[in-house]
Design goal:
Blueprint: E1 2-3, H1 9-19, H2 24-27, H3 36-52, E2 57-59, E3 65-71, H4 79-92, H5 98-110, E4 119-126, H6 133-148, E5 152-156, H7 159-167, E6 171-178, E7 183-190
Parallel strand pairs: 4-5
Antiparallel strand pairs: 1-2, 2-3, 3-4, 5-7, 6-7
Length: 196
């Protein structure tokens, strides 16, 4: 595993785009018209830039897996980050749904500590044939959390992923079923203080 650099942007964006194409948590917020894959790519570009500025993008040694996990309370002003966020929002989210999207994001954030003292695990993507990339990235993220002594928080809209995360030692602490939007979210936490 290695930390990503700006030169790794295309690789990281391609892996996230490929692995999140069928993710209901991502697809929920996208416009239904137009090229969905391009919209996911713009989200991946924004995530990469935001996390890179916070030293939170990691690539597996076989270059088939990526993880985005960064200290949430690192507030950094970046015009480049703002550009990518606005480009994603304006081109990929239906403007009439923006209030719903903001409400959902506020709800998700509210489930995490208000202090912001945690690592936010935003994306984990592994291409087919990535072998042990997920384990390598998971171990590196756990080592990082122990080193900085911060818990890890994440959300997933896929029950299969929730089961995998629980197998890795995460605990589900909240569940949200938005019946109106037909989407579910599991909220999970991994605490380095509870590791034997």
């Amino acid at each position: 595993m290695k930390p990503a650099t700006r030169s790794d942007k295309n690789l990281v964006v391609a892996i996230i785009t490929d692995t999140f194409e069928k993710n209901p948590g991502v697809n929920w917020l996208l416009r239904t018209s137009g090229n969905r894959r391009k919209k996911i790519k713009r989200l991946a570009e924004f995530a990469f830039i935001k996390a890179l500025d916070r030293n939170g993008v990691f690539i597996s040694s076989n270059r088939k897996g990526v993880a985005i996990c960064y200290p949430f309370n690192q507030n950094k002003f970046s015009l480049i980050e703002m550009f990518y966020e606005l480009r994603f929002a304006l081109s990929s989210i239906k403007l009439s749904r923006l209030p719903e999207v903001l409400k959902r994001e506020a709800y998700r954030k509210k489930q995490r500590p208000t202090s912001g003292k945690y690592l936010y695990f935003w994306f984990l993507g592994v291409l087919p044939g990535g072998d042990k990339a997920a384990y390598e990235l998971k171990d590196a993220i756990f080592d990082y959390a122990q080193k900085v002594n911060l818990p890890i928080y994440l959300e997933t809209a896929m029950e299969r992923n929730k089961i995998i995360y629980e197998r890795y030692g995460f605990q589900t602490f909240h569940y949200w079923n938005d019946e109106k939007e037909n989407i579910r979210f599991w909220f999970l936490k991994w605490d380095p203080k509870k590791v034997n």
